[in-house]
Amino acid sequence: MKKIILSLLLVCTMPFTLLANNSTTYKHAKQSELTKSLIRKISNDKNKHFKNKKYVKSTKNYSNSKKHKVMHVTATAYTSSKRETQGDPTIAAWGTKLKPGMKVIAVSRDLLKKGMRNGTRVKIDGLSGTYIVRDKMAARWRNKIDIYMGNSRSKAMQWGRRKVVIRWA
User: Fold this and answer.
1) Residues whose CB is less than 8 angstroms from the CB of residue 67 and which lie 6 or more positions away in sequence, other chains included
2) Are 116 and 146 in contact (CB under 8 A)?
3) pTM for the complete prediction?
4) Least confident residue range of 29-38, 83-92, 112-121
5) Per-domain residue ranges for the chain?
């Protein structure tokens, strides 16, 4: 806090101290540098307490500069196998026909309450591309996503269970 106040004092008194210099270019350059460093310091201090939270709203850019949500979840994988579902293994919860190669995820019901819907685009840290929410998981799961791996049981087993960070708008 002391650093912020000191920086504010420097920014406020800067025009008066540099008037004796008679160099307007120098004055504006120094003011701009101090303002940028002050803004950087304030934003770093503001975001410190978010680092260990489970659910964070962020103002970083994510497709068309919308605010996006960030969350730490457990990620597992699933396939189009009869033993992994009750009905047709190629039909998702909202009726989407799943085909191998599609970037689709299923989400736990609590994530639906936090703003995810059918068709929500999700970025998963560590994986390329954007995944689309097209399926939902059984009611017993919390804070979890299931990544669709087509027909490849070996890919699903290789993925296993991981903690990942997801971002969605």
Assistant:
1) 57, 58, 59, 169
2) no
3) 0.60
4) 29-38
5) 2-50, 55-168
Can you state the angle between helices 2-18 and 24-47, rounded to 10 degrees?
170
Tell me if 35 sits within 8 A of 11, measured CB to CB.
yes
CATH number of this structure's domain 55-168, picked from the four choices 3.30.540.10, 2.40.40.10, 1.10.150.170, 3.40.30.10: 2.40.40.10
| Mean pLDDT across 108-130 | 95
Strand (E) positions, the chain?
55-58, 68-78, 104-107, 121-124, 130-136, 144-148, 162-168
The answer to whether the beta carbons of residues 37 and 116 sit under 8 Å apart is: no
Reading the block at residue 58, the tokens are: 């962020």
Q: Strand pairing partners for 58?
A: 68
**What is the helix (H) or strand (E) element at residue 157, kind and residue range?**
helix 153-159
Euclidean distance between CA atoms 61 and 125, whole angstroms: 15
Q: How confident is the model over 38-89, as pLDDT tens digits?
A: 455 545 544 444 444 444 444 344 444 468 899 999 999 999 988 887 788 8
Q: Which two tokens stand for residue 50?
A: 């978010």
Share of the chain above pLDDT 90, in %: 54
